[in-house]
Structure formats: structure tokens, C-alpha cells
Design goal:
- The chain is of the alpha/beta class.
- The chain has one domain: 3-Layer(aba) Sandwich (Rossmann fold), CATH 3.40.50.300.
- The chain contains 14 helices and eight strands.
- The strands form two sheets. Strands 2-5-1-6-7-8 form a six-stranded mixed β-sheet. It has a two-stranded antiparallel ribbon with strand order 3-4.
- The longest helix is centred in the C-terminal third of the chain and has 17 residues.
- It is globular and about 55 Å long.
Length: 328
């Protein structure tokens, strides 16, 4: 990444975001970040050719949000589809925070998957044959108690999940201590709510080819029920940032790239059939409208090339979010 390369986002979008975060002078804000030396220390974590908007409009604003004085610990949610770049962002945030002596850690909802046997039981019979990722695959009591104890000021241990274990099906791989004052909690359906009573289960399915099947509709109903226990988790969030795909079909391309990278790094990845099932699950398990309705404080729109195109803050999103293409 070249931090001084041209940016894709309209300048007014970044200005509105920083104003929302309490930054009055964008020029001084950028110069202050340049003066820290942080940019040079962490550029290696960004992919070659990545847009500098990821740095100036997501990464550094998130650090600005995390660094605000507070008398209590803060939990920041980050919601984004698999493969869009949130894992890279998370690695950068942790490295940058460590360099700045900012007590921040990133944890994924994926780290709270059940252990192998119970995970397999929870995923048994789903029509996409995915080994994990669906609502209902996480240890909610562990997740809620961990976050609640952490918010109260306790030092906690966070579980770790290794997706490369068990031939790519994954398993819990240990624990890591967490005594940070700011925790970024990321996941692909963080903030998603069940459909309102009476709304059709088939909503948000017009983009699916082949059309959604009866088996998938039944599974979607089960997912709606499974989303219920996650709602108390979302209420713990002090703020929620969403990276929202302009084209939901981008998840296929992103997930393939993600698996290719895991194969290079770890020597194991999902096979073609499993990958196809995973992508189909992402597209059909939760209605597309549910992602558009996430009550995000900040929402970024990202195109299929992972270029940031728009930013909307909480005050703007109801009336001004651009239309989302489901089919491309």
C-alpha cells in the first residue's frame, strides 16, 4: 500500500466520518498521524495495491475512536462478510495499537465456535454442509460471560479457533489472555437481527441462482431462531462499524481468495465443493435485507475489488445509503 496514493472515497465522506468522531481539522489529523511514524511501521501488513482508503478512512479512524479517553472499557463491533478484508484490518489494528501503546485487542466471533464434537453436532444436517459459521455454531454462554466479565474490568482469557485443523473444518486451539481496555469484536453477521414477525422468509432471495430451495428456506427459519440468543451480545457493543458489500455475490470471489491464502500459509483449505457450499450459505442463510438493516454507527460500502466507495454515519444512513446490488 502507498499511503499517499490517490483515494477512491469522496473527500466529503471522510470529512463527515471524522466530524462524527469529533475531529474538527482533517489536515491536522492526517499530519499528526504521519508524524507518529506508525504508517511506515505497519505498511507491510496491507496487501500490495490495497487502497489507502483502508488506512485513512477505516484503520486510523478506528484507532481514533479507540484512543478517545474513557472511564470504562469499550467494545467496538466490526461487521463484514468473509473475505472482504476485516481480518487484515484486525491484524493491522493490533500491530498499530501495540506500537502506539494503546491497550487494544481484536477478537473474532469465530474464536467462540464450539469445540469439535459439539460444533459437528450443531452443524449436522444443514443443507449447505458447512462445518461452521452459521448462527448456532457458537458457544453463546461462553461468549456472553467472557465479554461481560471483561467489560466489568476483569482480566479474561479469549478462546482461539484454528480453521486449518481437522482438514479445514477447524477446532478450538487454545486460549490467549486479554487485559485490553478496548476490544474490537468482529464477525460476518455481527449486528444481524431476526426478521420482524410476519415478514416472509423468502425476502432477499431474488438474487439467488439457483433459486432458494425448500430445504434452504427451512434452514433459514432455523437460523432466524438461532439469531435470537445473539441479540443480548449486540447490546453490549458501545459502537458498531459495518463494512457492507455493494454486491453480495462478491463473497464468492473473496472467499476463494481467502482459502487460496490459507492454503499458501497453512497448507490446508476447503475443497471446491465445501467452498461452494460455504458461499451459498453466506448468500442464502440470512436474508440480504438483514445486512442492510444492521444498526451500524458507521457503514462503509465496498465494491467487488475491495475498494471503499461510500461512508455513512448513523445520522445519514437511514436516508442516504446508496442502493445495494444483489446480483452485480
Amino acid at each position: 500500500m502507498d499511503p499517499e496514493a490517490s483515494r477512491d472515497l469522496p473527500g466529503r465522506d471522510q470529512q463527515q466520518l471524522l466530524s462524527f468522531l469529533g475531529v474538527d481539522n482533517i489536515t491536522d489529523w492526517e499530519q499528526n498521524w504521519r508524524a507518529t511514524g506508525l504508517l511506515e511501521q505497519t505498511l507491510d501488513l496491507w496487501p500490495a495495491g490495497a487502497s489507502p482508503d483502508w488506512l485513512w478512512s477505516i484503520g486510523l479512524p478506528l484507532l481514533t475512536e479507540a484512543g478517545r479517553p474513557s472511564n470504562s472499557r469499550r467494545l467496538i463491533g466490526l461487521s463484514a462478510l468473509p473475505g472482504c478484508g476485516k481480518t487484515t484490518l484486525g491484524h493491522w489494528l493490533e500491530r498499530a495499537a501495540a506500537w502506539l501503546d494503546l491497550p487494544l485487542q481484536v477478537v473474532s466471533i469465530d474464536d467462540f465456535y464450539f469445540e469439535a464434537q459439539r460444533l459437528d453436532q450443531a452443524m449436522q444436517g444443514n443443507p449447505w454442509q458447512v462445518p461452521r459459521a452459521l448462527p448456532g455454531s457458537h458457544d453463546i454462554p461462553l461468549l456472553q460471560s467472557t465479554l461481560t466479565r471483561w467489560l466489568s474490568g476483569a482480566a479474561v482469557d479469549l478462546p482461539c479457533f484454528d480453521k486449518s485443523l481437522r482438514q479445514g473444518r477447524g477446532d478450538r486451539s487454545g486460549w490467549r489472555p486479554c487485559s485490553a481496555d478496548v476490544l474490537v469484536f468482529e464477525g460476518w453477521f455481527v449486528g444481524c437481527e431476526p426478521l420482524p414477525p410476519g415478514e416472509s422468509l423468502g425476502i432477499g432471495s431474488d438474487h439467488l441462482l439457483p433459486p432458494i430451495s425448500p430445504e434452504e428456506l427451512l434452514a433459514r427459519q432455523q437460523v432466524q431462531v438461532a439469531l435470537g440468543p445473539y441479540q443480548p451480545i449486540w447490546t453490549l457493543l458501545d459502537s458498531l462499524w459495518q463494512i457492507r458489500a455493494q454486491n453480495l455475490s462478491s463473497s464468492q470471489r473473496w472467499k476463494q481468495q481467502q482459502e487460496d491464502q490459507m492454503l499458501r500459509d497453512r497448507g490446508v483449505a476447503l475443497d471446491a465443493a465445501s467452498l461452494q457450499g460455504f458461499v451459498r450459505m453466506i448468500l442464502s442463510a440470512i436474508p440480504a435485507e438483514s445486512f442492510q438493516r444492521i444498526k451500524a454507527d458507521v457503514c462503509f460500502e465496498v465494491d467487488p475489488d475491495r475498494r471503499l466507495r461510500r461512508i455513512r454515519t448513523r445520522e445519514q444512513r437511514q436516508d442516504s445509503l446508496s442502493s445495494v446490488s444483489l446480483t452485480g
